[in-house]
Amino acid sequence: SVSLLPPAGGDGDCPALTSQVGIVRLLEALFACVTFSLVVHQRDWEGRHGDWCMFCWCFCFAVTLLVLLVEFVGLQHRIPVSWKNFPITFAMYATLMCLSASVIYPVTHIQNKALYGKSKDYRIAATVFSCLTCLAYSVEVTMTRAKPGEVTGYMATVPGLLKVVETFVACIIFVFISEPVAYSPQEALKWCLAVYCICFILSLVVIVLCIGECTGWLPCAFNKFLSGYTLLAVLMYATATVIWPIYKFDSKHGGKPGRPSSCGSFCSWDKLVAIAVLTAINLLVYLADLVYSARLIFIQT
């Protein structure tokens, strides 16, 4: 077994780097470093999409190094976070962030671009290593998530990982819904925005409480709070899943049923469709979360 404390000699915890999870984390850092190094070398990022991709790679690289350092030095019990919950939460977010970067970067920086020579080769290589980074983080999530009957942190369970997906999808919705502003002037669309915001905040609160080991601060049992809030989120997202397409794609309510001929590669109408699809996806995620949360309560009782 791997000790969580540094050896008496003070040389550090080598198994933290040589274990299977440690090796995967080293690969994550290596792939992320290679990715943003390739992009920086040719200065092949531009605009907000390029900034987001660069942020994803650099952020994941930096936090992965921090995780490796903490485990190597043996500071898990001295930092004010739950080490049963933090690494896998970060790994899940990193998987989604690198996945988004692996899609956004080639679409915005390779597709329909008149590229040639080294610039194109570097961008293709960066995309490949970004995909490898995403794959490495997904492997870590698979390796460290809770196994049947295993006692571990909540974020390592399926409902905990689904909370990460819920917040990430909500963040993408916020990006699409805010530019251009797509939730006015109808009150029904403002309700949809309220649904996205309320459910995002509650999911984020659960994640923060678990990482900070503050679930005891709740006025009721944690598992009952989870089931009640998830049921509420399912009902709220169900209304948004119906209301959004009605008011955006039904001509009777001022919507546009067809894609305008003036649309470019990804215009405002496409963003409305993306919001409708992401709303339906998050509804399914919350439904799965509710089912798994109910199963956890049943097992515990």
Automatic annotation (TrEMBL):
GO cellular component: membrane
Compartment list: Membrane
Residue ranges annotated for the MARVEL domain, each copy included: 16-149, 154-298
Keywords: Membrane, Repeat, Transmembrane, Transmembrane helix
Topological type in the membrane: Multi-pass membrane protein
Keyword Kinase in annotation: no
Transmembrane segments: 52-70, 90-110, 122-139, 151-176, 188-209, 229-247, 268-288
UniProt xrefs under InterPro entries: Marvel, MYADM-like
Family of this protein: Belongs to the MAL family.
PANTHER family: MYELOID-ASSOCIATED DIFFERENTIATION MARKER, MYELOID-ASSOCIATED DIFFERENTIATION MARKER MYADM FAMILY MEMBER
Name assigned to this protein: Myeloid associated differentiation marker
